[in-house]
Design brief:
Radius of gyration: 13 Å
Number of helices: 3
Strand order of the largest sheet: 3-2-4-5
Largest sheet: 4 strands, antiparallel
Order of helices and strands: EHEEHEEHE
Structural class: alpha+beta
Strand content: 15-25%
Number of strands: 6
Helix content: 25-40%
Oligomer: single chain
Length: 111
């Protein structure tokens, strides 16, 4: 894991697994992101083991490096199903959580 990643690096990574997207997991408590795995659950496991992250703070997203604005991030992952926290879909239902994720992404994903 490193401190940041560029859009260009995401563009180079995307074709390796899915072609047009890069999976990522954001820890909204520690303000960190893990990227580039076949499954969000792999990134989640990595974050818990290597970074000491707690599942309640981890949200799965997808980056579309060829897109910009709100289309760059997709809030969709099975790890986002957290009924105990009130999130009953694969998306991130909380606008507050979405905004926090966007802030972290803006800090760590460079042009």
């Amino acid at each position: 894991m490193k401190d940041s990643i560029t859009i260009e690096e995401l563009k180079e990574t995307a074709p390796k697994i899915f072609g047009n997207l890069v999976k990522a997991v954001v820890d909204v408590e520690k303000n960190i992101i893990a990227v580039d795995a076949e499954l969000h659950s792999d990134l989640m496991e990595f974050m818990m083991e290597q970074e000491g992250s707690e599942p309640k703070n981890l949200w799965g997203i997808n980056f579309y490096p060829e897109l910009t604005g709100n289309d760059f991030i997709e809030f969709d992952s099975m790890i986002n199903l957290k009924p105990g926290l009130g999130n009953r879909t694969r998306g991130v239902e909380s606008k507050e959580a979405q905004e926090k994720i966007r802030e972290i992404v803006a800090k760590l994903i460079k042009e």
